[in-house]
Amino acid sequence: MARKSAATKITEFSLFAPQAKKVSLAGSFNKWNSKLLSAKKDSKGNWKISVDLKPGQYEYKFFVDGSWMDDPKCNWRVTNTFGSSNCMIEVK
User: Fold this and answer.
1) What is the separation of C-alpha 39 from the centre of its chain, rounded to a whole number of angstroms?
2) Percentage of the chain surpassing pLDDT 70?
3) Measuring CA to CA, which of 1, 3, 6, 35 is 20 to 30 A from 43?
C-alpha cells in the first residue's frame, strides 16, 4: 500500500512595494526559480502570492524588478552562501 503524502497548506506571502513593476517569489520550495511564482499587485501596492506547501521549514526571498529582496515582515533569517541572509518560514 502506498504511503499518503503529507497534506499541504496554502501559505500566503505579501510585500508592500507600490513602485515595483514585477515581483516574484523564490525559495527552497521551488529551487530558487525566480520565474515560476509571480505575485499579483493590488490597488494599494501590496503584492501577494499563495503557495501550496507541505509542512516543513523553507528559505525564501522576493525577486523585485530584477533584484533579490528580503521580506521586511520576516523575523527569522539564516545566512546563505552569498554572505547575506534568506528569510525563513515554517509551515505546520
Assistant:
1) 10
2) 93
3) 35
Measure the CA–CA gap between 92 and 57, rounded to whole angstroms.
9
Contact predicate 13/53, CB 8 Å: no
> Using CA atoms, how far apart are residues 92 and 84, in angstroms rounded to an integer?
26
- How large a percentage of the chain has pLDDT more than 90? 93
| pLDDT, greater one: 3 or 18 | 18
Cell numbers for 21, please give them: 513593476
Buried b (16+ CB within 10 A) or exposed e, 48-73: ebebebeeeebbbbbbbeeeeeebee
DSSP string across 54-76? -SEEEEEEEEETTEEE--TT---
Q: Is the pLDDT of residue 2 over 60?
A: no
